[in-house]
Amino acid sequence: MTDHVGATATSEERLLGGYGGRLLLLVSLGWLTIQGGRLVLSPLLPSLIDDLAITPFRAGIALSVLWGLYALGQFPSGRLSDRLTRKTLLVAGLTIAAAGFAVLAVAVSYPLFLLGAAVVGVGAGLYPTAARALISDHFEAKRGGAFGLHTASGDLGGGVAAGLAVAALAVATWRAAFLPVVAVLVLVAVVLHATSRESYHVAAVDLDVRATVGRLFATARTRRLLFAYCLFAFAWQGTAGFLPTLLQLDKGFSPEFASAGFAGLFVVGALVKPTAGRLADRVRRAPVAAGTLALGAVALVGLLAAETPLAVGVATVVFATGLMAFPPVMQSYLMDVFPTASMGADLGLARTTYIGFGALGPSFIGFVAERTDYTTAFGALAAALLVAAVVVAIEARP
Question: Which cellular components does GO assign to this protein (predicted)?
Fold first, then answer.
């Protein structure tokens, strides 16, 4: 059962107004907050590792658990949002994520921290596929622009995360950073409940995994694009997990500078993604996607080689430009090729695939850094981006 009503059938598409625009704003605020709560862990890691007396590898395992459960939730979330309602999945995801962040706010041991990370992963996993499917319900001609604004909200969450980390460490402990996250998630859930015209619906749903896998992996082209996206996700999640730690421990910068560099990554992304999304509405997407990946790979190498604050800052801006422009271009392409009736399920399985692979990134960084250093580990991420760029470039040929 569904009661999705696309705004495009009855009214002009408005990114910043009307019913569809209000829903876009709400689900984007929810995504900003979920991303901010997850990404605040990165600048907090050095303090968290010291406070809980754990190794970088164990910290990486916790991040991989969060990202892994988040990845596993993408496919069932999409399938359920197709068969039930988008509202049902979105409100459930916001509520569970809020509960997980509340556990992190009181975590005084590694097992409790691991539990909180797992609950956050489950709640966050229910949310983004349903949110993107909801946006697609209401935007067609401006779908790229809507995706650009929505994905940019997650990057704004990264900028907020850096500020939360600095404030929490200045006045309390790392745990305090999660309290405002809980409050905003509860508020968004309440407002979305009151605003959405959809009803709630709960029922047993056949996930129909075999048919979805058959559609998603039916062509060699789709398989290659998913492989490239997996490499991108691996590099992205490794970077999101340990960039501040790289800047502090290998580069010798202060926690404040490391947090500012981390925030800069997402502030640039918030500016780049809407532009990339609009570009995706006007030109061939594969060449643009390949170029963004190549730019990100080269800039990451430059970041690893940089020694001065200015050089690190410039390299971070260029790296963010390449890395963050990729998702709205590729995601709008994927939504174009998925059948409307199974859009949520197909996107969900695609996201489970590439985010699930990407969840290995933090554990990989922690493992390699323990045995060598963070610079060596991040060099492998640059190589992954370069291989992904080559794969997409091959697909971009006429």
Answer: plasma membrane
